[in-house]
Amino acid sequence: QLQLVESGGGLVQPGGSLKLSCQASGSNLERLTMAWFRQVPGKEREEVSCINRNNTTKYADSVKGRFTISRDNAKTTVFLQMSSLKPEDTAVYYCAADIVLPCNLIRPVNYDGLDYWGKGTLVTVSS
């Protein structure tokens, strides 16, 4: 059974950077689509970025040019490098994985159906 554990969250000033990590245990990442989501209490969950098995990527418009997703299959880790952070990036960030769906087929309607989820890490952007 795959388990995902996020880390790297914290408090950062506007304009700063953070790098989130999603460590997988129990399975190899090579066959999985991996994605990062975020959620603010009282708001809908938002897909931030996604990376396919072939390393093609997808980004939400709100983070394009500022965030970079990458994967290290040997270390069974997926990363989210976040730069030029804004207060509106404040949220709990979650890592998710799916065996079947590629990034272009991940939609809000099937978020809950993704195979694996981590418990999240809090990112707070504030001065």
Structural account:
- The protein is mainly β and 127 residues long.
- Helices cover 0% and strands 46% of the residues.
- Strands 2, 4, 5, 6, 9, 10 and 11 form a seven-stranded mixed sheet that branches. A four-stranded antiparallel sheet has the order 1-3-8-7, with no helix packed on it.
- A hairpin with a 6-residue loop joins β4 and β5.
- The relative contact order is 0.31.
Category by helix and strand content: mainly beta
Which overall shape is indicated by the principal axes computed on the Cα atoms?
A: globular
- Total E-strand runs: 11
How many angstroms separate the termini?
Answer: 40 Å
Largest sheet: 7 strands, mixed
**Low-pLDDT sequence parts:** none
